[in-house]
Amino acid sequence: NAEYMGRCSTTVLKVRSTPVLTTGTPHVRLVYIVFEAMNKFNGNVGTGIGGSSDGNNCVDINTATAAEFERCLARVGMSRAQSIIDAREVMGPFESVDQLTSVEGISSSLIEQNRRRLYCSAPNATAFSISPSMSNVSFGGSKLCMVGAVKRKCTSATINFNSALSPGKKTRMRPHSAPIEDGSVPMEAESSPPHGFVDWLTKFHEWTGLERSKALSILVEHCSNEQVKELLSVIEPQLQRDFISFLPKELALYILSYLSAYDLCQAAQVSQIWRILSDDHLLWRQKCREEGIAAASTSFIGGGSKHQQACCSWKQAYLRELEIDENWRRRPLKTPVLLKGHDDHVITCLQYRGDRIVSGSDDNTLKVWSASSGDCILTLTGHTGGVWSSQMTDNVVISGSTDRTLKIWCLRSGECLYTLYGHTSTVRCMDLHGDLVVSGSRDATLRLWDIHTGVCRRVFMGHLAAVRCVQYNGSYIVSGAYDFLVKVWNPLTEECLYTLQGHGNRVYSLRFDGEFIVSGSLDTSIRVWRVSTGEWVHTLMGHQSLTSGMELCGNLLVSGNADSKVKVGISERDDVYIL
Length: 579
Hints:
By secondary structure, the chain is α+β, with helices and mostly antiparallel strands. The chain is built from 15 helices and 32 strands.
C-alpha cells in the first residue's frame, strides 16, 4: 500500500512478474512500491521497473483507449467510451476526472461509481524508471541520485525514506508546504538495492512465464512470515473484484437466485448496489414459493409507502414466516402475567387495545388492566347484573349486561357517561364501528346506538329467538340467532336484505370481512356465505360440537370448538390443521 496526496486515494499494485518484491531487504521492496505508486500517480499504469503494463484496475483518462474504458469501467459501453476519446481529441487532455461530466452521456453518478478506477495524469508527465545500474533514477528527462536525495517534480508531497522505509511501517506521502526553487521536492533513501539485484532482474525477464512462476514459488518458500504477509497485502486486493456490480442486472439476479434466503440477507450488507439487488422482490417471491409461503399481503406487513411495500412485501412475508417458525421452535415461553381481581367469578368477555385490557365478569363489574405491568387500573361498577358483552375504543368502554342495559364508560376516569335503555332482556352481544355500536339481545332484536349521545338510532326486528352474535362494518349488519338463521341488514333503512338458511341448530358465532360471512353453529358445521348475494359458498365439517369462536383473516380461518379442538383452514389449498 502506498498512500499519496493527489488525484488517487489508495494505490493497488500489480505484482506479477515482479521479483523485486520477494528478494532483498524489506526496504528494497518498499522502495519498489513507492516508485510504482509514483508511476501510477503520473499516468504510467504498469510494472514500473521494466515490466509490461497489464493493469486493469485503474484507467488514465488521458491515455486509455476506448476498449480499456469499456473493459474496466462499470456501465460504460463502447459508445460512451468512444465519446470520451472524441472529446479528448477535441478539447485536449483532461485536467481532472470530474471534467468527464462535459462528455455527452457521462453523468456525475457514473463517475462516482467508477471513481476508484479513474485517475487523471498530468498532460506531459513521464513515468519513473530505474537505470540498469540501479544507481540513478530518471524522471521526465532528469537524472536524480537515488542514494542521498531523490528529487521528484512535484510540489504537493514528500516521501521521507528514513521513516517510511523502516521495518513494519507503511510508505506514506506527507504534505510539503515549501517546495524547492526548481519545483522539485527532496526525498531521502535509506539503503541501495542488494548486490547483484539488477543482474538477477535482467535474467528474470529472459525466462519464460513457467520459469518465472517457478522462481517466484521458490522465493516465496524462502521468505519469512512477515515478508509473505507483506506480499499478500499487495496481491490480495487485486483478486477481490466486485463482479456483481459489473454484470447486467438480469445476470446478477440470476446468480443471486442460487443463494439461500440467509445468504441474500448477508449479501445485502455488502454495499448499496448489492442491497438493491438482494432486495429484489422477484428473488424473494421465488424464495417464498420454494417454502410454500402464500402471496405477500400488505395487511400482514403494514407501514411504508406503496412503493416500499411493492418492493419488499415478499421479503417481509418470508422473514415474518421465518420469525414465527423460529419463535415456535426456539424462543422460550415467557412466564405469563396472572391478572387477579374477579375472584372466583366467570370472565364472560374480554377486550384488548394498546396497553389496556378490559375484562367483564358475572360479578357485575368490568376491570381495566395494564398489559405491561398486570396492575388493575380501574374497576367499573354500576351494572346490577352480570356483564356478558363489551367493546372498547381508545377512550370509551361499552358494556352489555343481564340487567338489560348498555353502559358507556370513560376509560380514563372510570365514569359512566351514559346508560342505554331499550332492550327487554339480556344484552348478549355487540359490535362497534366508528361512533356506532350494534347490540343484540335475548329479546330477539338488535339496536343501533350512538356512543357520543346515547341515542338509539335504529331497531331491527325479524329474528324469532335470542340474538347470539352480531357483526357490523358500517355498510352491513350481520346477525346470528338461536332460530338457526343468519340475517343481513341495511343499517340505514332497518331492512333485512337476506335471510341465510342452512344451519340445523343455533348459530353461536359469526365473522364478516366485507365480502364473506362465516357462521358457526351447534350443528357442528361452519358455513361460508357471500354477503353481496346471500348465496351459500362452502360448508366446513370436522368439529364435533358447537363452534363458539372464530377469527377470519384473508384466506385463513381459525375456529375454536367445544370439542376442545382448534382448527386452522386455508381456503386456497383446502388444508386444515388441528391444534
